[in-house]
Specification:
Blueprint: H1 2-14, H2 20-23, E1 28-35, H3 39-44, H4 54-60, E2 62-68, H5 76-85, H6 89-92, E3 98-100, E4 107-109, E5 111-113, E6 127-129, H7 136-143, E7 150-154, E8 170-174, E9 181-182, H8 192-199, H9 202-207, E10 210-211, H10 221-224, E11 236-237, H11 254-271, E12 280-287, H12 301-324, E13 330-337, H13 344-349, E14 355-357, H14 359-374, E15 380-384, E16 387-390, H15 392-398, H16 402-413, E17 419-424, H17 425-430, H18 436-443, E18 453-457, E19 461-467, E20 470-475, E21 481-487, E22 493-500, H19 503-512
Parallel strand pairs: 1-12, 1-13, 2-22, 7-8, 7-12, 14-19
Antiparallel strand pairs: 2-21, 3-4, 5-6, 8-9, 10-11, 13-21, 15-16, 16-18, 17-18, 19-20
Helix pairs in contact: 11-12, 14-16
């Protein structure tokens, strides 16, 4: 008996006992990405949110309050690529939504379609992504030789284009022309369960409804402090007057998130995600950004209503995974791509320095200045996302050194309202910046795609962008994202210090015990990888 007890004791010492969940990776990893969700909203609305939606993730998960994307662009695709590839645009190449081609003759999109379908750009073409490195989904697909089930679902093709090589995984998005969930496949080639889902015509049901507040407006954050006698009521029709995109407003309303939730649930059940020994991966991209033409602020009633309603979808989605797979086998990673908080008009009322900056008008003004010095010509080929492209063929023809023109232009732009700093591509290539805005610009610089001169806006200033007669307001500041790991082998913990979002790819790679993406420079988050 003594010999037996000694043997058992030695076995315990030499072979520590681990729980099953800590020795095996999760069966399913779910990325929940919420466009325009801020950490401040999760905290401000916590008493209005249910117990088992966002609050369950916040209270029982590992919650990082300040996830930094470290990019000098507001384009959500860049931020998604940073997180999933574990590196910055200087490596993965997605410097923004668009840029000028190498010869400056045409605009190149960060993602596009194989066929030119300009009338209905959402409809069933092959997605071409200009991402230059692998993502965590690509590496999982390679490691498990295609046996892992991988899918990306969103309300637009932009939200699914950067998750993985679109030709190697299932990608689905909401078609604003038909109201269906579509993919790259021809409609006749869609899987049976997808056809069945579309046959239910949920979008037709929701488009007949109106969107109003889910609860008493006086309880919304917008009114709780000032307590006006007559709160601004809202009630919106979801029918779009644009006959080419009749379901456009659905995608920017709470009902778009409901369709997305239901489709994700159908995919998990019908494709049997998380049911075998091969880890499956799913990305679902919800939104808290209303379709309204007027720019919305952090605590506007419509935005809060989107968050409160999405909370119900998050709760039911978690419950589905709990009942169908078991949360001990599911790792949920919630993140966001937040942007502006306040409109310049609001800041102006508070006597905070603010204003609007227009890049294309500034490019025209800069060209006039350069013509006054160097003579007639189109010296500026274009402007995209706080970067100016010079006409290098004209410079060469005129025998004008690029660096000389860059320096003159940089000095001139410092006199333009709203511009805080300028830096040329020459300085980005020849110097290393480790802190501040120049560091962010350098991380976002890719030689073959980026411009020749870069600017940053002053705090409080926003950029006014007009495309196809629609005006968008883009903040010049860069906001933190909430990042939460919940479910499999995670601990209830809140981390207030800043972390880098490129660390997510390295963290998931460590958990799944697969190679990191080929451009990854992130490090595993120690609170999650124990």
């Amino acid at each position: 008996m003594k010999l037996l007890l000694t043997a058992i004791f030695c076995t315990i010492i030499l072979h520590p006992v681990y729980s099953q969940s800590s020795t095996k990776p999760p069966r399913l990893v779910v990325f929940i990405q919420v466009d325009e969700l801020h950490t401040e909203q999760l905290l401000a609305f916590r008493n209005k949110l249910g117990k088992y939606g966002f609050n369950q993730l916040v209270n029982k998960g590992t919650f990082y309050h300040k996830g930094k994307y470290e990019s000098n662009t507001s384009f959500t695709g860049t931020k998604t690529a940073n997180m999933l590839c574990g590196c910055y645009p200087e490596t993965h190449g997605i410097i923004g939504k668009e840029w000028l081609s190498k010869d400056k003759s045409q605009t190149v999109q960060a993602f596009s379609f194989k066929s030119d379908n300009t009338l209905h750009p959402d409809s069933g073409d092959i997605i071409i992504s200009n991402r230059l490195t692998s993502s965590i989904a690509d590496e999982l697909n390679l490691h498990n030789r295609g046996f892992s089930k991988i899918a990306s679902i969103g309300l637009s093709p932009e939200k699914v284009a950067f998750f993985a090589n679109p030709n190697k995984i299932d990608t689905y998005w909401f078609d604003r022309t038909t109201g269906n969930m579509i993919s790259e496949a021809d409609s006749s080639q869609l899987k049976e369960w997808v056809l069945d889902f579309n046959d239910k015509r949920f979008a037709d049901l929701y488009i007949e409804r109106q969107w109003g507040p889910i609860t008493d407006l006086k309880k919304y954050h917008e009114y709780s402090k000032s307590n006006p006698t007559q709160p601004r009521h809202f009630l919106y029709d979801l029918k779009n007057s644009n006959s080419a995109l009749p379901y456009q407003h659905i995608a920017g309303s709470p009902f778009g998130n409901i369709i997305l939730r239901d489709f994700a649930a159908s995919l998990i059940i019908n494709e049997e995600y998380g049911k075998d020994d091969h880890v499956d991966l799913l990305s679902v991209s919800f939104t808290c950004k209303p379709y309204l033409s007027e720019h919305q602020e952090l605590f506007d009633a419509e935005v809060e209503d989107m968050v409160l309603r999405l909370d119900d979808q998050i709760e039911s989605f978690i419950n589905l995974m709990k009942d169908n797979i078991g949360l001990e086998h599911v790792l949920v990673v919630l993140s966001s791509t937040p942007s502006s908080r306040w409109k310049p008009e609001t800041l102006k009322k508070e006597e905070i320095s603010t204003g609007y900056f227009n890049g294309k008008k500034t490019a025209a003004l800069l060209n006039l200045y350069l013509m006054a010095i160097y003579g007639q010509g189109k010296w500026i080929s274009g402007y995209h996302d706080k970067q100016f492209y010079f006409n290098k063929s004209l410079l060469e023809k005129s025998k004008i050194p690029l660096q000389e023109m860059q320096e003159k232009a940089a000095t001139f732009l410092l006199e333009v309202s709203g511009i805080e700093k300028t830096i040329s591509s020459y300085h980005l290539r020849t110097n290393e910046y480790t802190t501040g805005i120049f560091n962010l610009i350098q991380k976002n610089y890719y030689h073959e795609r980026s411009g020749d001169l870069f600017i940053s806006l002053k705090p409080g200033w926003s950029e006014e962008v007009v495309n196809h007669k629609e005006k968008n307001i883009i903040s010049g500041q860069y906001f933190n994202s909430p990042l939460i790991f919940f479910g499999w082998n995670t601990s209830a913990m809140q981390i207030l210090s800043s972390i880098q979002m490129i660390d997510v790819a390295a963290t998931i790679s460590s958990i799944l015990q697969i190679p990191e993406p080929n451009g990854c420079i992130g490090e595993p988050l120690k609170e999650v990888v124990k």
